[in-house]
Amino acid sequence: MGIFERYLSLWVGICIIAGVILGNIFxxxxxxxxxxEFANVNFIVAILIWVMIYPMMVQIDFSSIKDVGKKPKGLIxxxxxxxxxxxxxxxxxxxxxxxxxxxxxVDPQSANEYIAGMILLxxxxxxxxxxxxxxxxxxDANYTLVQVSVNDIIMIFAxxxxxxxxxxxxxxxxxxxxxxLSVVLxxxxxxxAGIWTRKKLESSKDKHELEHFLAKIKPWSxxxxxxxxxxLFGFQAEVITEKPQIIVLIAIPLLIxxxxxxxxxxxxxxxxxxxxxxxxPACMISTSNFFELAVAVAxxxxxxxxxxxxxxxxxxxxxxxxxxxxxxxxxxxxxVFDN
Length: 339
Hints:
With 339 residues, the protein is mainly α.
């Protein structure tokens, strides 16, 4: 683990604070950056997300999908949780908290947008940071590649329909074109670019060229993540400063969802008698979110300064420290799976 991965929670925290401070000091600058968009897609955010995702996509070896039949249980667990449970529990929690429990604390329009942002988080299973979580739990790297690869393929076809369905149930109108465009921009094209790059490097005479290339571009992924965090919190700086309680309200159901899904997955993995090096990454994939995509879609659908965008940004705030705590739990309970 490099210094950025090892202290990722600290760097994210620093970038969050920096983003809020800079957003309040230079509101006009961030307003100008926010205006650099086309078809509701912000150019700066898009570039940073690409910088963040592309190195991760190059790591994915789609040829490893052929090995999925050898150990199908972990993949089955991940797919069931990601696509049949997680999106719907997130939508239910969003509705419960912002239509019932917090109904007197948030206006109806804002409540709808917060629910929408939470739904987008719930429908986007992790495809990038999961490599970090897998490594931290000493997971089976090849199997993690299989799980991520299959999830990415399914996401291309399932993200838009499930998101549209759940957002529709929440009485929010969804422009299908924007959803599909976001999936193409932030999943399909980076995947294609990653596959092409990997094949090009693997065909090189130098057998270590791929490894050297990944080592060179890996810091860019972290830089893209941290830059995105600064920018997103800069865009939301005024709202965060004026309504810090909103951050807490959004974080509560997100925390319940994250820990709840993890323990459901972890318990199921134990019941299915999965080895720890497959069970831990499977649960991390099931629990964590592809917040890069969720943020991008929220911005595209509802705007940079919307409640939906804020909810997905809070997802970034919650994701890293919570996932690090789950990594610790998984590592400390390794013996449970060895018995």
